[in-house]
Amino acid sequence: MENPLLLFSQANISASKDKTYYKAMKSAVKEEPHKASKPGVKQKRNRLSLLLQKPEFHESDHLGKPGNLTKAASVSPEEAVKWGESFGKLLSEKAGLDAFTKFLKTEFSEENIEFWMACEDYKKSESADELLPKAKTIFKTFIQKDAPKEVNLDFHTKEVTSQSIGRPLRSTFDAAQSTVYRLMEQDSYPRFPPSALYRSLLQGRAPARAALRRRSRSFTLSDLQGSRPAFPAR
Fold first, then answer.
1. CB neighbours (10 Å) of residue 214?
2. Residue 19 pLDDT more than 60?
3. Which of UniProt's keywords are assigned here (predicted)?
4. DSSP 121-185
5. N or C: which end of the chain has fewer CB within 10 A?
6. Mind listing the pLDDT tens digit for each residue in 31-78?
7. CB-CB contact of 220 with 154 (8 Å)
8. Of 143, 145, 221, 122, which is closest to residue 181 (Cα–Cα)?
9. Is the distance from CB of 179 to CB of 221 less than 8 angstroms?
10. Inter-axis angle of helices 174-183 and 110-123, to 10 degrees?
11. What is the pTM of this model?
């Protein structure tokens, strides 16, 4: 018969190991930006992110929160038809913005719409005192090297943006926001109308959870020459 004290000791050691592993995993998720620059760390962080990448995981993780994504299911098919006519019409309505955000999550590219929404919120700042902290947060989250939600910007746009962060204006992120808008319009939006999520809205049904697809290739500014104006008409 095994010694009860020995079994109790082994159980405590196992529990301690599990607790240590959990703390290490939690620490990796909250990794500071300067640590992410070390070779191999970003790749490990990305692999961990993929394991945690579930639609509900980032449900409220937005600087410009679009609201409850389930509300997109309450729109009428007639309203949803408009979203297939142009990208501008899709983003001009809150329910359309919510639906497109949910779609981008299935492609692992929701950082683009989150950045666009953060820029929209930034431009609504009521005073100059609000601009600096917001600008720093947006830059650290989406633009600086190895940012947790880094968007794909060409070198020139990134440099111009970074140089104005110290004394930001309401127009500080205009060039970067325009680039990301065009990227979504030309790369992601064409896949939205044929998606199961959009088709379910046209049929007046609550969208089923879409299957995740591999991240698509992101275009840079050189791919987007001759594109249409960056923002929808108000």
1. 7
2. no
3. Signal transduction inhibitor
4. HHHT-SSHHHHHHHHHHHIIIIISTT-TT-----HHHHHHHHHTSSS--TTTTHHHHHHHHHHII
5. N
6. 444 444 444 444 544 444 444 444 433 433 444 444 444 444 478 899
7. yes
8. 221
9. yes
10. 150
11. 0.61
Cα 74 to Cα 206: distance, rounded to the nearest angstrom? 8
Longest dimension (CA), the chain: 80
Q: What's the rounded Cα separation, in Å, for the pair 108 and 111? A: 8
> Mind listing the pLDDT tens digit for each residue in 22-41?
344 344 334 444 444 444 44
What's the token pair of residue 39?
């070779």
Domain 77-203: give its CATH code.
1.10.167.10
Q: Which structure tokens are listed for 206?
A: 């609550």
Q: Where are the domains of the chain?
A: 77-203
Dig out the tokens for 197 from the structure. 């999520």
Backbone angles phi, psi at 114, to 5 degrees: -65, -40
